[in-house]
Amino acid sequence: MRMIKFCKVISLLVLIQSCVSSKEMVKTSPDDSIENSMVLALEWQEQHPIYSLDPTDWTNGAYYTGVVKAHQATNNQVFLAALKNMGHKNEWKTCFRYYHADDIAISYSYLYINKLRKHLVDLKPTDNFISDHLYKDHEWKQGSDEGDKKILWWWCDALFMAPPVLVEYANLKNDRIYLDSMHQYYMQTYQLLYDKKEHLFARDLRFKWTGKDTDLKEKNGKKIFWSRGNGWVIAGLALIIEGMPVGYEHRPFYVNLFQEMASKIKETQPKDGLWRTSLLSPESFNHGEVSGSGFFTFALAWGVNNGLLDKETYLPTINKAWKALRSCQQENGKIGWVQNIGASPEPASKDSWQNFGTGAYLLAGSEVLKLK
Amino acid sequence: MRMIKFCKVISLLVLIQSCVSSKEMVKTSPDDSIENSMVLALEWQEQHPIYSLDPTDWTNGAYYTGVVKAHQATNNQVFLAALKNMGHKNEWKTCFRYYHADDIAISYSYLYINKLRKHLVDLKPTDNFISDHLYKDHEWKQGSDEGDKKILWWWCDALFMAPPVLVEYANLKNDRIYLDSMHQYYMQTYQLLYDKKEHLFARDLRFKWTGKDTDLKEKNGKKIFWSRGNGWVIAGLALIIEGMPVGYEHRPFYVNLFQEMASKIKETQPKDGLWRTSLLSPESFNHGEVSGSGFFTFALAWGVNNGLLDKETYLPTINKAWKALRSCQQENGKIGWVQNIGASPEPASKDSWQNFGTGAYLLAGSEVLKLK
Amino acid sequence: MRMIKFCKVISLLVLIQSCVSSKEMVKTSPDDSIENSMVLALEWQEQHPIYSLDPTDWTNGAYYTGVVKAHQATNNQVFLAALKNMGHKNEWKTCFRYYHADDIAISYSYLYINKLRKHLVDLKPTDNFISDHLYKDHEWKQGSDEGDKKILWWWCDALFMAPPVLVEYANLKNDRIYLDSMHQYYMQTYQLLYDKKEHLFARDLRFKWTGKDTDLKEKNGKKIFWSRGNGWVIAGLALIIEGMPVGYEHRPFYVNLFQEMASKIKETQPKDGLWRTSLLSPESFNHGEVSGSGFFTFALAWGVNNGLLDKETYLPTINKAWKALRSCQQENGKIGWVQNIGASPEPASKDSWQNFGTGAYLLAGSEVLKLK
């Protein structure tokens, strides 16, 4: 190339070439909008359905919660169509363990569709589940030998799975009894797992320090706080606060908790924007992970958009995180770098994916969209 | 390139470049055939399932009628596989309102599959629906206070939804009672909604002029004739005439109506080939719309292919329309510029889509294919 | 650009252009790994579901057997997710003809998932089918006027459909009665259809020579041995031997049969690597076919990987075949050149596809992977 000397022909060639290129550009240039990225993520995920126990399980529950928020933010019918298809295929059922918070997460989507289209959604299974979950007897409510399982929501993920559904259900029924029940159980979990010094949640009692030598800790001596686990909590908080009546007496508790956690999460963000799976020991698995980071990005952006977090303070964090999340999306729409199903920090990889990871991505996008 | 004189290096470079390019061309050059465009449209639509009331509803009814015609025209098993999958997933059910023409449209596909594969399709739901639709008592048949709703098919879309199914059903049962019933109800709708001066159908009684000041009209003072509404009618006519025994006594009525409408539709075609959503007021929403245009293109091409319309007269109209329809297909196969679900002229957009829009595209392609 | 006279600018342009290109290269360069090719094949097939009788039929049975092996070989969750979705959608049912080997093929997948995830799979339908298939009275077991149909597995395809399932079922139940029953029926088919001189199976009695003038033969005077038919047998043998306890007394029979057939199959490989649909009359339809060739490639590679076939002898055959199979995969993942559903040699085409063809491709890939 250094040897090029004459050029008319060349410039002609270049011209032709650039015409061709620009035409191709028009045809193939990707639509770089956030919305388009979200559509691509949905399309890939819809083409790769996956579940753990059943298509009504928490993995789809979390994924379709992302789809709900994507639809709310964009009004793009591709999201609503996916929601309705899922509901129809699932016959509007919840998953089957009435005592398990995971198994009602899917109803967040049903309740949303029901708001848009009357007489389409069969809410009976949701009614039954919530009634049983809150008010039917079960060993957990009596206490059991497994110390950490004597309360209904004994692991922090549960705070994403059930409470936002109960808030929406209270709105539907216009009955604060569901809010009060939610709050009662939330407080139990909060007391059990929230670390008031670190402002993060232990995933479950295994990770709570008791002062004994047997306390689990990272190699660096710090406590083990799981990124996704805390992602569940703070994303759930955003959903709860958003749905809760402004005047509800316990709302300040949730707002305060949200702000406390947000501050800590901001603080733990690695330079490249994506949180590691072990928040206080980023070196354990030193790469970004998308599900936790997606939930954090959603929560922080939601906080800014709703006046609960200071825009100037949080915007750099959010922008860095979103940019990094985008780079985890492959050309075909797939969202990689998602830690597999688990209950503590584990590594992810470029190609590891789960539907709830896509859900976290959609949640993040749905609020980052509104920042512009 | 003839003028290149110096530049061995350059020509070498160019050569390398063009080799790469031409190899890429081979790999990525699209198959520009009509059939391939139809396959891409189907693939995108299958990946984006959507319904209004239920997957057995009229939106899928119209879409899969397009898939039937695509299969008939191409014998490409990709279309038949999609039909069978739909039927299996729907358990060969109709939609659930026996008195509503929309809810039997899906049976056009079931009856088609049944012709190809004996003992596969469960025709019971179709039997029951047709029996109830035609012969069970219902308020509409008694007349009601809502003037326009005292007949079974009180809106023009219905003439696509039910009559072609009844014609096929008459053939299956070899019983002209279904033809006669169809004709009886068709005539009621014809009398109610056909404008004998304009040779177009009012969508429903709201749009029929009575000579009062309250008559609905466009800004330009003309009557409101909805593109898709008339698309339903004339595409339905093609399906009816095609299926009807040649010697059926009322066939000439349908042929005549088809020819009258075809002439008017040709006349209203805008220069760029695609009809606007308000046929007599193209300036209301001045862009082409795909569902109406697709139905028109199908009907006109079918008329030419079956000797009911003069080829020389109609070919320019059809070619212009098809070329324009093609330009509404996005690279991923999606058919855009489809007016949303509605009941009167409304705008569309580059990205607005519906399954029945894809159906209209497939119908058009299936007949344009045969013109070559 | 018209004014460019010197070349610094141009070389800069060219440089920019090549940067762009190389960036695009990075983005779009395909992942040429075997695993990626298998994932693409699965993705295309999942987006083009197809069945003959029912989604539980042998076509899906054979396809998902390929998906099982793909998952075993790669541990890529995309394969397991597809299996679980299929099982859930099929409600873990077999197809419905208890006396028909085809209708239990799908249970190979159910039994595999059941090994990985306890309490997920409902094995009742499989239990019932196997019990009826083996031990319930039926005309075939009594003999019938149709000479070839007086035994349970009267056509060679059956040796892929049922025996591998019975072997896995024997393992699950830890009960050799299922092995013994399998062996009993296998021997009947072997006696009926195996040509001990040619070391190939007649598809069914129609193709077995009796010495009469009416014996079916190819134009070249040779016997008709169907590629896919023998593919079913030898791929089935690999699955049987793999699953069968090492000490099972009849194992040597299967090993010997496998080796005999492998040798003959190697011998009949055309130069371009892909077998023709009529093994001894390649000139009948002189192009490669993927389903038979895929099953052969799977079986031969499995034999090498498991020490039953000599690596040096068979590797060239396998490599040539795999390379040619790869060339039948289209850019979008689709596997072409698959003979349609049939029962004797027929032609295929570049675009002809079936789910079991994709299954054969996945089987082949799953063993070729391990050769490296």
UniProtKB/TrEMBL annotation, chains A, B, C:
Leader sequence segment: 1-22
Listed Gene3D superfamilies: 1.50.10.10
GO biological process, alphabetically ordered: carbohydrate metabolic process
Keywords of the record: Hydrolase, Signal
One GO MF term: hydrolase activity
InterPro entries noted in UniProt: 6-hairpin_glycosidase_sf (IPR008928), 6hp_glycosidase-like_sf (IPR012341), Glyco_hydro_88 (IPR010905), PolySaccharide_Degr_Enz (IPR052043)
Protein name in the entry: Glycoside hydrolase family 88 protein
Source species: Aestuariibaculum suncheonense
